[in-house]
């Protein structure tokens, strides 16, 4: 009887080896499939990220376009905007309108800063493109007065970056930035 068992085991040995080899081959194929899947997923994530960044850029452009078109397409708004930026006197209602437009401009700029901080926009995009137009506005007498009064409504890091940009423009004599008034 033990001879029969030994004979059966001996007969099963080649079959076991084939199963063992098949098992190893399937492990290799599975590993390759996992690597290919991970590479594919990485490619898909990269494409999805690019699409999301593009959508954010488009949304930001739409926000800015609404502000610009409102000012450009509405003569009254354009006059208030111009008067506010040049320091012409405004009545209470027009002052409120000017400040609403200025607030919209600052908040739109803030959102670009925020998206830059979160890595949605390229590094440096804020300082290259969005900070400079806002510095020009905040260097006006009306812009500076509003900024000094309202900047505590914004994230402290945004305020620090804008104040540094204004300070640099002031030191460089850019955009008509006047040195800040001495504090009493």
Output the keywords.
single chain; mainly alpha; rod-shaped
Label the overall shape: rod-shaped
Low-pLDDT runs: none
Rounded to an integer, what's the Rg over CA atoms? 32 Å
- Judged by helices, strands and strand pairing, the structural class is mainly alpha
Note the beta-strand portion: under 5%
**Total domains:** 2
Main beta-sheet strand count, sense and barrel state = none
| Helix segment tally | 6
Mean pLDDT over all positions: 83
Number of strands: 0
State the distance separating the first and last CA atoms.
111 Å
Fraction of residues in H or I helices: over 70%
Order of helices and strands: HHHHHH
Strand and helix layout:
Layout: H1 2-73, H2 75-86, H3 92-117, H4 125-138, H5 141-150, H6 156-172
Helix pairs in contact: 1-2, 1-3, 2-3, 3-4, 4-6
What does this structure look like?
The chain is mostly helical and 184 residues long. It folds into two domains: 55 residues; 111 residues. 82% of the residues lie in helices and 0% in strands. The chain has six helices and no strands. The longest helix is centred in the first third of the chain and has 72 residues. The chain is rod-shaped, with a radius of gyration of 32 Å. The protein starts with a helix and ends in a 12-residue tail after the last helix. The model has no long low-confidence stretch (mean pLDDT 83).
In short:
This protein is mainly alpha-helical.
């Amino acid at each position: 009887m033990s001879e029969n068992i030994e004979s059966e085991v001996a007969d099963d040995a080649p079959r076991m080896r084939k199963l063992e080899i098949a098992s190893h081959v399937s492990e290799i194929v599975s590993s390759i499939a996992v690597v290919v899947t991970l590479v594919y997923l990485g490619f898909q994530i990269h494409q999805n990220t690019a699409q999301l960044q593009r959508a954010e850029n488009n949304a930001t452009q739409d926000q800015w376009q609404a502000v610009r078109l409102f000012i450009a397409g509405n003569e009254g708004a354009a006059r208030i905007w111009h008067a506010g930026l040049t320091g012409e006197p405004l009545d209470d209602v027009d002052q409120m309108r000017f400040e609403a437009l200025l607030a919209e401009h600052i908040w739109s700029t803030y959102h670009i800063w925020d998206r830059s901080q979160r890595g949605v926009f390229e590094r440096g995009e804020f300082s290259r493109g969005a900070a400079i137009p806002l510095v020009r506005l905040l260097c006006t007498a009306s812009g500076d007065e509003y900024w000094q009064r309202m900047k505590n409504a914004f994230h402290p890091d945004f305020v620090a970056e804008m104040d540094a940009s204004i300070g640099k423009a002031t030191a460089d004599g850019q955009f008509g930035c006047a040195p800040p008034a001495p504090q009493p």
